[in-house]
Amino acid sequence: MKQQSSQSYETKPRLEAIKNHNIFFTRLTGLIKQVKNLKSDQQIQCKDIEQYITQETEVTALIKKLESYREENQHFFEAEKFNLYKLFSHMTGKNLINGLLLSLLANALNFLGIFILDEITLYLKDFNEGQQQQLDISLMLVAIMINYFLKSIVQTQYQWQGNKWHAKCKTSIQYLVYQKSLRLKIYSNQNASKPNNNNNDSQFGTEKNPDINNILTVDVETLLQLYNGLIETISSIVSIIVIVLLIYYKIGSAIKNGLYILIGAFVFNMIVGLLVGIAVELMYKIKDERATLTKDVIEGIKSIKYLSWEYIFLQKINSIRNREYKNLIFLKVLDGILTIFWQSLKVILLYTFLKGYLDQGNNLKDSNIFTIIALFGSLTYPLGIILHTIEQIAQSRVSYNRIKVFLNQPEIEEQTVQSNIEESLQNIAIHLQQVSFSWPSKSGSQSDSENLNFSQPNKNIKIYQSDQKTDDKICSKNEIKNYLFTLKIENLIIQKGSLNYVVGEIGSGKTALLLSILNEMDCQYTPKTDSLGSLISQDCQLRQIKDVSLSKKSQGKIILNGKIGYVAQNHWLQSQTIRENILFGELYNQEWYEVCLKICQLETDLEQFEGGDLKMVSGDGSNLSGGQRQRISLCRAIYQNKDVYLFDDIFSSLDIHVAHKIHQNIIEYLIKQYQKTVILVISHYSLLKNTIQDKNIIYINHGQLIQDQRIIQDYIQSCSQNFDNSEVNEQKPPHDLNQNLNDDKINKPNDPNTINLQKDLKNMEQQIEENEEQREKGEIKFITWKAYIQSIGIIFVILFLLFELLPSACSIFTDFWLRNQVSKDQNGSLSFHFIDQYFNSFESEFLFLTLLSICFAAIGGILYIIVSLLSSLRMFRKLNNSIMFSHMTFFDCNPIGRIMKRLSDDINIIDSELPMFIQIFLDEFSYTLGYPIAIIIQNPWLILFVLIAMIIAYFVQKFYREASREIKRLSAVDSGRLLTHITESSRGLMLIRSFKKERYMVLSYLQKLSKSINSFLLSESLQVWMNIRLFTICCAVQSFVVCSVIVIIVAKISIDYNIVALSLTYSILFINNFADCMLFFCISEQNFVSVERVRQYFDNTQENLESAKWNNHQVSDQNSNLSEQELQENNTIIFKSVYVSYDSLSNSNNSEKNQQESIHYALKNVSFTIKKGEKIAFCGRTGSGKTSILNVLFGMYPIQKGRIFINNKDINDLTLKDLRNQMSIIPQFGFLYNATLRDNLDPLNTISVSRVQDLVQQSHLNLTKHEKIQVQIDNNQFKSQPKSEGQQQSISENDLSFQIEEGGKNLSNGQKQMINFLRIVLRDSEIICLDEATSNMDPNTDAILHQKLFEFAKEKTLIVITHRLENIEKYDRVFVLDQGIIVESGHASQLKKIQGGFFYNQYLQQN
Fold it and tell me: Considering the domain 1124-1145+1159-1214+1327-1393 in this protein, what is its CATH number?
């Protein structure tokens, strides 16, 4: 693919960034004060923190640097050959090297301090109170104090380099991944099952491409560990080597045995690191699988609730999580083993070294035991941290490779589209010649397409097979079959300014034709054959084909003359206002905007919304009706003012009256007035009666374009036989609106591609802030701590805390005991007589203390494993349960990105990071607490200074934590917004590309990315602010100790030098531990924000499927009870004065009158009765309340007034499970998930395969293989040669093993609806409901489905919501709704006679 030129992405201007922070980060003090001064109802916002971001870490500057490097080195970054290492090194390499050098320098200063300590202790041994000795010791004490202050500065600068590395890494990866996602081919999962063997990155391939949500959350966060993991591993290894050499310098060859142990430890750690990498890679694959299913479930949650499948999919998600959990158990066990091993290694080495030293006949006092204590104290951190850093490297490697795989996926081949048109072809909008299109495949070979030709026979699409054999071979559930769909075109010409209709049965390839034009399918050149598969419907086209021939280089390409606007079957909207969705990045032109609203019949709908077109669209438009979503999508396309429009069944969700008006508007405005080119896929063939004469009809049958006009007319006529015109007179649709449009003079912006970024994004930002995610404020609340502790168990928490403190206590006790042994050699001190009396020798007593430490470490490690696993298991299950059983209003108000953030990133933190940081904090805390106590015990006069230092440290960390929590919460919300944008972009990828809106989406993304990176970086920068102050306090404590020693030496105060030496030793170790302790405490608290966010969803309003009286909002009166007569009648469903509103009734203090005036009711005083076995249809304009009937019937939303009865029982007296199990439904947008056809029909597999096949066969329905249903051959799994097209089997009722992809993307909308029909056959309920269930079907299929439906529902009650009237005569009664009120009811034959009535006009339009 030709490399795209680098683009400069600018974001909105902001406050000038600071060049850099000083060593004390004083600029951030202003932010801390700002947070502290916030009022109780205020929270920190993104705009408040921009002034604290440095120039080096600005997102805009980083993106410019990245794009500049890509432009200069394009050969490194071609599609499928993306060199991530080069770019990664360029963006972050300098900070990584600086960080490594600073880390090594900090270690060097630490060793210099130990060396100075060693010299001081040697001086103290031979101290004779001479002045020169006093001066030398005093100077060395001052030197050690200065040395550790410099070390503190170096260490904070090392951390700051890490923060900058994190910001650059996160910005680069998240930008690259998102930008790549906008250029990816859209694959079938089956087609992407194996990596391309020719790809250099194939070694990193997985069976499925990594999930983008996990890439941008789990993988990016894991990759950030590389800085700490790589540098700390190198630094720790260097530190261990230097410490071992220093110990060798002190005790000589006695180190030999301990050295063997140390080498063995590293080998063991490397082996464990490899195992960790393997386990993490497998676990991340399972995470992708869980994320895929979870997204399917959240997007289809309404259908799941309709079917009472919550427990089924709860179990399925938990099942995947259990597999993930098994890998987590393995990782935690390895982690626990390493924790025990490395914590024990310190005491084992100390015992081995000293025992070997004494075995050689040396005396303990000759070894300078205090230097050894200091060295082993310094050994604690590298030995403790290296187990985590090696794991971090292993995990980072896995995430790096997953990101690399993602960035090397194939992209859309833009050279397939030829837009530089020859002068002789200027009257042609689209020309396709000698091409075939198939769904993108990673592993499929080109020869498959090349071998296909147009002479192969076609098979008619079979929807109904009365002679189906019952003894067909049953396919294995795991069997993989070969289904290949190909759209073949010899010559297709679309004239400029023409109106083109595309017709055909479901799955025939209508949508595939549009996607082929959009370059979303693989295009192959096909040699010309004798057969005719082209469309030539006008004489002028026939002449032009004879006169014009394409050049050879144009063959096999998409010739496109003009810019495209596309409206898909599946409506894609963003979480923005309606206006922002329509503008889609364009300038706001009020006059043009209002005309677009008129064209799309949106004015009436907007008047019903509070705020009009400023109404926020939730999720994917779940708070709008299907028709409203479709018309907003259409309005967006028209507003863009494109040259060619591709409309894919845009009338499927519209009532016929509105459809006819919009259809006429398209003809009058787009075709006649502005000479736009329109290709319109339709399933409402009645629209063909009221159209222009000069039109093209493209008939597609089984992937073939049919040109024979007789065949086309016969097909349309056969589809039109369902229309009955006998009882109404032919009448043309009204043209009032069209007349207005012709009279209007519209001034469209000269540059339709101009992005009014500042205004549009400012409005977007304002709307998001008004509807932003709820954030906690202040301290982590007790209820959050309680939730986490309860997930573990209070007993385990207490034991875990106890045994995390005991090893350090034992270590400090051993230090004192060793000091006592030296003192005993000198003056016979017996201060440890209480333990010495039980042992006969130094070696046995030392061995006991060593084994005791190991025992404590082992118990602590086991408890760490238990605590980590229990919290992971229970927190996820409770979160998953809370989400699955949340009320529908929760899903209406929360975008999928916000929910997925908790289920991916927050859960990952609870799984991995939180337990690890808590453990490290407790380890550091135990030493931080022990060292000052030990110093005070030996030097009681220092207690005042230590207390003062502790008080100052308390206030420093308190101010930091207040700001840190708020910034961390803001960061989590910013990340949620980012994920929402990414998820929405993934769903609307084809539409974004069709409008060429990649730049606009990237700009929008960069705005959110900038906020996310700013809050993330600031959260880390505040840690540096705190650390430098804590280090300063530690140095002050050390200076108190140093000054005390100087006073003792100068004043010649008599004191045991061992006490002085041990005090100095502990002051050094205190500096190393105290800041780390506070840092890890604050990091742990930050990670607790994830627990806080997860716990928020524990409070969701829940649906209890097993409980009655679930509607607490219902207000009833005596008149709403059933009368005796009603009880005796054979009624199935009764609505009595039902009022329904989706508005929030949060203001309970308002009077009922005020509430009545402010509430918009979707249903108003609706009353009707349906008898058992009746067939009822509900009609009405889109947004009239039809779907609300089913919403309340199934208990999806509460009713505010009135009562509903099923079989003479108030539905509020039934449990939701009992209520929903009495009914079956085919919803307007059916739910499908990534599994086999059999699993989608019967998720629990409670019905035998043969029984499922029998029931499906009895329905006489057959899912025929065409359009998107295909599975590419995999040579590794399917060994036989591919069948020719004529031999390929259909996906019949016996093909229950057919794999349906994520969201059913490998099926047409009509096929999805047919699968939903099969579900109701299997459920076999007495009440059957359909919500626009045949809207995407052609008339023939619709007629056949209705025939089968009425046969199946012969003795059942049938409720159908429809705007299609072809089969309306079959229903016993029809209810017509308008603005939530039933305005007409009766049999269709009666309603057709009411001239001027709503149904009359509707029927008139369709016929």
Answer: 3.40.50.300
